[in-house]
Design goal:
Residues 6-19 have low confidence and may be disordered. The longest helix has 11 residues, at 46-56. The protein has a domain at 22-90. The chain is built from four helices and no strands. It has helices at residues 24-27, 46-56, 66-76, 85-90. The chain has 116 residues and is mostly helical.
Length: 116
């Protein structure tokens, strides 16, 4: 289990629109040129997806953020007992069922040599 940074754009309205001026070629471009094709983003936060799944299963839980989901998981499932965001960050991830005795902390070596 690892703790990741949340997605930058979680909703189509969060994506920046630069309002670039388009030429006729850009507007009426070929289907295979990829310049005219718009990417569809359908990204939702994990806690939002879990809320939707619980609603479909007619279970009454209302999560407000990902921390509340994580707290429920760590309380309800034996494999996740003892886990916290602090432990996950400190050990750069945890193995299930080993939160009480995690692997040693790894010291990453970063070279001070300039790279091209």
């Amino acid at each position: 289990m690892q703790h990741f940074v949340p997605a930058i754009a979680t909703d189509p309205t969060d994506v920046i629109n630069f309002n670039l001026h388009q030429s006729k070629l850009d507007i009426f471009g070929a289907a295979n040129d990829r310049w005219n094709q718009k990417t569809e983003r359908n990204i939702k936060s994990a806690w939002f997806v879990i809320n939707e799944l619980l609603k479909k299963n007619e279970t009454s839980c209302n999560y407000k953020n990902v921390e509340s989901v994580f707290n429920d998981i760590t309380n309800d499932y034996k494999a996740f007992n003892g886990m916290s965001y602090e432990l996950i960050d400190r050990h750069q991830g945890l193995i299930l069922n080993k939160a009480n005795s995690p692997d040693p902390i790894i010291n990453n070596y970063y070279s001070n040599v300039m790279r091209p």
